[in-house]
Amino acid sequence: MNRSFPAMKRMRSVLLLSLTALIGLALNGCAYMGLGSRPLSELTQKYTDDTSRFVSVEDLVIHYQDQGSGEVVLMLHGEHSSLHVWDAWAEKLSQNFRVVRLDLPGHGLTGPGKAEDASYDLDYMLNVLDEFMMKLGLDELPIHMVGASYGGFLTWNYALQNPGVLDSMVLVDATGFDQELPPVLAYNTLPVLAGLNSWTLPRYKVKSRLDSMYYEEDRITKDVVRRTQDMMLRQGNRDAFIQVARDMKDQLEEGNNESQRIKYIETPALVMWGESDEWTKTRIMKQFKTHLPNMTLVSYEGVGHLPMQELPVQSSRDVASYLMYGELVSLPDGEKQGW
Predict the structure, then answer these.
(1) Range(s) of the domain holding residue 255
(2) Which residue from 1, 128, 256, 339 has the fewest beta carbons nearer than 10 Å?
């Protein structure tokens, strides 16, 4: 009988290894399929660095990063995103400016507020932005505001409501005027599909969403997909995204936004646009070009919705030139960039 002990031990070892492998596969499968939420402690450890800070604003604990010194550049990301989309720009701009970028309410490590019926409409977002700036003392400093996509919508609305406060603004593929939501956002306004999104968010679905934002697919690395999914799976963010999409839809419908008043904005503006953007169409950019006074336009061929990630070197150089000198010092090949 003693001879059977080694065989039994080997069998137990095999069973234990098999069970461990099955558990690992199950956990990886859950992560891939986006089931459940990511613990905030895990995400904080993974996606913060020595420039990261947290500050209480209303019922939020806002995550932001603060680096460099000089005049302040405040950066606002777009919907379904986080402050990390600005990594390349922050590295470049922090050589000459103090760069502050935050995870907006309902996004990134900031996440949603405590109220179950929270709204993320324009008034709420701008109020939070005002309080955030006051908490950091930014409201008393020269400031340049940079916004991408929905962050661009917040930026030009902030300039409109607070004339003379901003030294300049940069709008990157900004939302504005009467327009429909992109399909990957619009489905969040449909109850059945939105309910599915609040339950599961598989990685392939995140990748498909990014495909609609990038022109060059090879720019979408596995790390970008993983980070995007992780941030969307921060507890409460999926429900917040649904409400953000619904608020955006209402605000972009004809007659529900302040686009007709863009012509009154006197803040100097750099408008940046990827010419292959499927989210912010040519029609929208032409309206900015027609109605926004005191603006400089730069557009990029073969670039989609995110120039700061698809063309980080050139786009960061362009925005640095504009913020330092008020103009684009040089354009590629000495040619004028347009449509």
Answers:
(1) 40-334
(2) 1
- Secondary element (H or E) of residue 230: helix 222-232
Q: In b/e form, how buried is each residue of 73-98, taking b as 16+ CB within 10 angstroms?
A: bbbbbbbbbbbbbbeebbebbbeebb
Query: What are the residue ranges of helices labelled H in 34-121?
Result: 40-47, 87-93
Residues 16, 126: one domain? no
Q: Amino acid identity of 317?
A: R
Q: What would the two tokens of residue 3 be?
A: 């001879």
**Residues 125 and 163 grouped into a single domain:** yes
Structural domain tally of the chain? 2
| Higher-scoring residue by pLDDT: 246, 330 | 246
Whole-angstrom distance, CA of residue 110 vs CA of residue 55: 10
The whole-number pLDDT of residue 180 equals 78
pLDDT beyond 80 at 256:
no
**Are 22 and 131 members of one domain?**
no
Residue 14: predicted pLDDT: 45
56 and 17 fall within a common domain: no
> CATH number of the domain that 223 lies in?
3.40.50.1820
The whole-angstrom separation of Cα 19 and Cα 4 is 22
For residue 339, is it within any domain?
Answer: no
Distance CA 89, CA 303 (A): 16
Tens digits of residue pLDDT in 47-60: 999 999 999 999 99
At 310-332, the pLDDT tens digits run: 999 999 999 999 999 998 876 55
Residue type, 29: G
28 and 4 in one domain? yes
pLDDT of residue 5: 55
3-state secondary structure (DSSP) of residue 235 = coil
Q: What is the DSSP string of 167-207?
A: SEEEEES---SS-PPPHHHHGGGSHHHHHHHHHB--HHHHH
